[in-house]
Amino acid sequence: MRIHGIVDKIEDDVALVILNDDRKINIPIKYLPSNIAEEDVIDISLDVDKEKTMERARKLKKMMEESREED
To answer: So which domain of life are we looking at (predicted)?
Structure first.
């Protein structure tokens, strides 16, 4: 999924971004390119990381099994 937005302002290391549907979000500038500036148009890409999702599920399953063993 791709979302486009405009950097409206940058204050206290946070960028206020107005999305193409007029919603506003705050993004810490540490997650943005180092040369980001107000009025820049940004492209935000959102993807599911299947590998990390599976890794997290394995860890949760292991924790649940260990919890059951303690009972």
So the answer is: Bacteria
Residue 70 pLDDT exceeds 90 = no
Predicted model pTM: 0.71
Provide the pLDDT for residue 71: 64
Whether 24 and 14 have beta carbons less than 8 Å apart is answered as no
d(CA 33, CA 45): 14
For 3, 29, 52, the CA distances from 47, given in Å and listed in that order, are 11, 20, 12
